[in-house]
Amino acid sequence: xxIIDGDTVDISNVNRQLPATQLNVGESKAKWMEQRLLxxxxxxxxxxxxEFLAPLPMTALLAEQHFDYVxxxxxxFTPKLHLIEGAVNRGFPVAxxxxxxxxxxxxxxxxxxxxxxxxxxxAKMVRKRLRRRGIAKGVKAVYSLELPMKxxxxxxxxxxxxxxxxxxxxxxxxxxxxxxxxxxINDLLAAE
Length: 192
Known about the structure:
It holds the Pfam family ThiF. The protein is built from five helices and eight strands, in the order βαβαβαββαβββα. The chain is α/β, with parallel strands linked by helices and 192 residues long. It has a four-stranded mixed beta sheet with strand order 3-4-6-5, sandwiched between helices. The chain starts with a strand and ends with a helix.
């Protein structure tokens, strides 16, 4: 398994991300997830990359290794698009988590081909850009039919390809993540 995250734990992560606690604010998320995963299964062959996925290193990573499945949980548009496109072009199956921000109802989460997504601005942007690059379908998207609450929109400093974000309810990222995990496990089992 390869996990990649260049971010550090922020106080705003404590309510909604497994590795985030008051005790590890400022520390590497990838390092904390490495410890957690190895505590669950010490025999796990784990490759940890503590950096943000910029387009060029991402392209090199996808070209150098074989992946049975790629799970995209990136919330910055340009790296998300690059990862999906790169994985599809190399024949790796992809499960991509779309926008959970500003939403509160996990019963509206759906899994479908990117071409079938509705009511999700991030999915719409990804879908349009992928189509321009010749990818109209073949990416499994985890998305919500719920419209985001407008008052939860926040502007950011623009770092890491991200100009704005919606505040996220504590249980929604976990629900999206569990949906992605379900897609991967079921697809891998069906392929055996």
